[in-house]
Amino acid sequence: MIIKELTCIGCPMGCQLTIEFDEIQKKLLHVSGNQCPKGNRYAHKELTNPTRIVTSSIKIEGGEIGVVSVKTQKDIPKSQIFPIMDAIHQTTVIAPVYIGSVLIHDVAGTHVDIIATKTVLTRKKESTDTTL
Question: Is the pLDDT at 33 greater than 90, yes or no?
Fold first, then answer.
């Protein structure tokens, strides 16, 4: 049996959890410190199959700004964070990009898409008119 301490991220309370876990049987024995039932669910998931939402940014060409913020469409196995980040860093998109647009489909073979979390419009061309 192992005892772990975690901060629950299941709700805004951020409860400090103390967890007793049977590592051999992958069985949660006891959770204390949680103020709501989400603490039990979070503790079990974190110890048996931890997942995360990945947030980052992707380079954008021709946009009003140089990058667009992105995230995974849903949580992914924690073990896939680095392959996903590699794919994100290797990607460049062309403006315009709209919030919710899929920018990378099935990133790193996870069956999860990378979506834009911001709209970035095309940069306006500068006027070449020099008349006053």
Answer: yes
